[in-house]
């Protein structure tokens, strides 16, 4: 019942972890979108402030320096502001929201960068600006902000053509007798020519600037997308590593304990009829193993250290593991451990203990050994060596087929030991000869001790 409650709590924690991961993914996507939108908004605001200042200056000149009536001034100001506002509200956001359209060579650009919206803006410009200039000649200054907008909304040559058409309309008004800015016919003609020439000169710069801004926006979008992909892959890798860790912990604890319990139960069942004291002893071992497995399960749920390390140092944990396994299995054990071990990271201690546990489990299940020796000594001041030797049946390591073994449910232990040694920064070497036993050696680098005295050893 306690195990069931613990597993239920673990499932709740895993559900919460999954919710957190999904939430993190949503937050990451929202953050990326928010950063992209903020960049677009800054770009829009830069242009919008430029057009607001220009339109404000032209409208002010139209209202305060023109000799037209107030009604004509107001209507003229409305007419020149209408296409400007349409561009700022409708056209400009769509120009930079379609960054892929701007990331092209000039020859491949569409005529209108925003499709029909650009043509509506062009129609408003060609209709409203001449009408406004007809009512009040000062309104011709609206080209100060309309010309850049045309080059942003259209590619270079179409925008220059629209500027030319607009000035042709002004020219027709001049020929019809309308005068702008209180100049004579020649002055107005010169003004039209200068506007077109000036537009041709600066229009290319505005077009390149718009293309550059669009390309930068596209790069920002791609970068945010790649960062989100990296975050997603990192979460997936973390989840995979965590699943591998949990599977390894279950293999090293629960699976081994269940194997021992099954073996002891079979022995106890055979002894119930003719050797009740021995059966009672094995039942006590089953209870002890079950309690240890329950403790490991609880600590696995809490992501803590193995039960054998709970409140004990590595030396004591190894000694206890070796002798308890020997008592259950029946082989004779010898445990030789450095009296004073160098300080090790907690995870390294866990890995060393798990390697010993896995080795002893393999010996109990497959080796049929009579003697087992476990040694943990400093081979050099900066190198710690763990060795587990037995005199069992051994095996031909050169001809092992791990894929076939794993299909049959075996072979995980050797891979797990090698992985744990690698995680600790060392390496695991397995030597075995059929009929001559097996030796597993793990070398782990450690920090060089400050003193140079010869380390003491303890042999049991």
UniProtKB/TrEMBL annotation:
Domain Histidine kinase: start-end pairs: 253-448
GO molecular function: 4 iron, 4 sulfur cluster binding; metal ion binding; phosphorelay sensor kinase activity; protein dimerization activity
GO cellular component: cytoplasm; membrane
Keyword entries, A-Z: 4Fe-4S, Cytoplasm, Iron, Iron-sulfur, Kinase, Membrane, Metal-binding, Transferase, Transmembrane, Transmembrane helix, Two-component regulatory system
Transmembrane portions of the chain: 49-68, 74-96, 116-135, 155-177, 189-211
Comp. bias regions, Polar residues: 9-21
UniProt-annotated stretches for the region Disordered: 1-22
SMART domains linked: HATPase_c (SM00387)
Major subcellular location class: cytoplasm
CDD domains the UniProt entry points to: HATPase_UhpB-NarQ-NarX-like
Biological role stated in the UniProt entry: Member of the two-component regulatory system NreB/NreC involved in the control of dissimilatory nitrate/nitrite reduction in response to oxygen. NreB functions as a direct oxygen sensor histidine kinase which is autophosphorylated, in the absence of oxygen, probably at the conserved histidine residue, and transfers its phosphate group probably to a conserved aspartate residue of NreC. NreB/NreC activates the expression of the nitrate (narGHJI) and nitrite (nir) reductase operons, as well as the putative nitrate transporter gene narT.
Protein name in the entry: Oxygen sensor histidine kinase NreB
